[in-house]
Amino acid sequence: MRINILKSLEHGNIAEMIYMKDSGEISKRKVKVLSVDDSTFKAYCFLRNTKRTFKIDNVLACVPVLRRERDVI
User: Fold this and answer.
1) pLDDT band at 66 (very low <50, low <70, confident <90, very high)
2) Which long-range CB contacts under 8 A does 5-9 form with residues at least 24 apart?
3) What does the angle CA 67 – CA 48 – CA 66 come to, to the nearest 5 degrees?
4) What pLDDT, in 10s, does the model give residues 24-35?
5) How far apart are CA 51 and CA 65, in angstroms?
6) Residues 6-10, mean pLDDT to the nearest whole number
7) What is the pLDDT of residue 71?
8) Domain residue ranges of the chain, discontinuous segments joined by +
9) CB 28 within 8 A of CB 65
10) C-alpha angle 56/9/35, rounded to 5°?
């Protein structure tokens, strides 16, 4: 997942991710990655409307949100 998170940061894309809290609760979120550290990353979370810190190991899936059809090609 780290590569997808870094690509999202590099391209400035909004990403959609499936995230699992340490408690086991799973959520689907749209985020804008702001910075990446060794084991965590900071992102603006559109679900909570605030900046959050996420553990990279807890990201189950991460894909870019396409803004336009031409982004597919």
Assistant:
1) confident
2) 5/33, 5/36, 5/41, 5/56, 5/59, 5/62, 6/36, 7/64, 8/33, 8/62, 8/64, 9/33, 9/34, 9/35, 9/36, 9/41
3) 10
4) 999 999 999 999
5) 18
6) 95
7) 53
8) 2-66
9) no
10) 60
CA distance 61 to 33: 14
What CA–CA distances, in Å, run from 36 to 4, 13, 23, 24, 64?
Answer: 11, 14, 23, 23, 16
Q: Which CATH architecture has domain 2-66?
A: Roll (2.30)
pLDDT confidence of residue 70: 54
Residue 41: CB partners within 8 Å, gap ≥ 6?
A: 5, 9, 33, 34, 35, 53, 54, 56
